[in-house]
Amino acid sequence: MLVFNGQIPISFESSSIGKKQISIKRVNPVLGFGFSNCRFSSLQKVTWHTAFTIKVTGICLVHCSHSQSGQSLSTSMAVEKKVSKKDGKKEHHLWSKRESTGSGQKALNLVRIVSGLPNEKEAVYGALDKWTAWETEFPLIAAAKALQILRKRRQWIRVIQVAKWMLSKGQGATMGTYDTLLLAFDMDRRVDEAESLWNMILHTHTRSISKQLFARMISLCDHHNRPDKTIEVFADMEELGVKPDEDTVRKVAHAFQKLGQEDKQKLVLKKYLSKWKYIHHNGERVRVRRELQG
C-alpha cells in the first residue's frame, strides 16, 4: 500500500506468478502523479515506474511477437513463390539451350562424316544411314542445319548428296530444301537434273511454289543460256499468278531479246516494271523516269 500525506491515492495488486508484478488499480485524479513524498511499506519496495514499465513492456513484447511472426510468415511465402517461379523459367531455358546445342553438334558430326568420304553414292548413303541408325525419329533439324553448313562452305556435291538422301527418306520436302538443291545443281552445272527436279516440284506443289523458287529456276536457266526454258518457267509463273521481282523481269526480257522477240521484251518490261525508279543523287533519294529498255 502506498501512503501519501495520510491518504491512499493508489492501490496495487501483486501476483505470485514467478517474480512479483505490480499493476495500477486506482489513481486519485485530484492528486495526479506527484509521488515525491510517497513511500512503500516495508514488505514491498517497488516503485510505480517499475510496475508501469513491466506492464507496458509485457504488452509490447506480445504485440511485437505477433506482428513479427505474421510478417515472417508472409515474407517466407513470398520468397518461396519467387523461388518456384525462377526454378520454372531456369528449367525451360536450359531445356531449349540443350536441345539447340544437341542438333548443332549432330549437324557438325554429319558434315565431318560426309566430308571425308569418297565421291560415291553408295558410300555416302551408307554413312548417312549409319548416322541415323540409333535415332528413334529422323533428325530433321540436324540434317537441315548440316545442309546449310555445306551450302555456306560451297561443297555443292555434298549438298546434292545429302539433299537427295533426305528426299529419298521422305524428309525435308520443303521450299528451302528445293532452293538449296537447285542452287547446288546450278553451281555444279547439272542443268538436266535441275529440270527434272523442277518438273517434279511443279506437278507436286503447283499452288504453293514461292516467288523465290521461281526466281531461282529462272536464274539457273539464264546462267546456263537456256532462254527457251526461261520463258517456259515464266509462263508457269504468270499462270499461277506469282508476280516476279525486278531482277527476274530483266532476265525474262533478256531471254525474249535472245530469241529475237523484241515486242514481247518491251511488253514484259512495260507490264512488270514501274515507270519510275529511285536513285540517290547528292545524298538524296530522287525519283526518275525509268527507261523502257532493260
In short:
With 294 residues, the protein is mainly alpha-helical.
Structure description:
The protein is mainly alpha-helical and 294 residues long. Among the domains are: 11-87, no CATH class; 196-294, Serine Threonine Protein Phosphatase 5, Tetratricopeptide repeat, CATH 1.25.40. 62% of the residues lie in helices and 8% in strands. It is built from 10 helices and 4 strands, in the order ββααααααααααββ. The strands form 2 sheets. Strands 1-2 form a two-stranded antiparallel sheet. β3 (276-281) and β4 (284-289) form a beta hairpin. α8 (227-239) crosses α9. The radius of gyration is 46 Å and the shape is elongated. The termini are far apart. The model is unreliable at 1-8, 10-67, 82-86 and 88-99 (pLDDT under 50). This is Pentatricopeptide repeat-containing protein. PPR repeats lie at residues 210-244. It comes from Actinidia chinensis var. chinensis (Chinese soft-hair kiwi). Keywords: Repeat.
For the report, how would you describe the main beta sheet? Answer: 2 strands, antiparallel
Q: How does the overall form come out from the CA principal axes?
A: elongated
Unreliably modeled segments: 1-8, 10-67, 82-86, 88-99
Average of per-residue pLDDT values? 76
The CATH top-level class label of one domain: Mainly Alpha
Secondary-structure-based class equals mainly alpha
Strand content: 5-15%
> What is the end-to-end distance?
121 Å
- Helix content percent band: 55-70%
Reading side by side through the largest sheet, how are the strands ordered? 1-2
- Specify the number of helices: 10
Using only C-alpha atoms, the radius of gyration works out to 46 Å
**What is the CATH-assigned architecture of one domain?**
Alpha Horseshoe
Strand segment tally:
4
- What is the helix/strand order? EEHHHHHHHHHHEE
Per the CATH scheme, the topology name of one domain is Serine Threonine Protein Phosphatase 5, Tetratricopeptide repeat
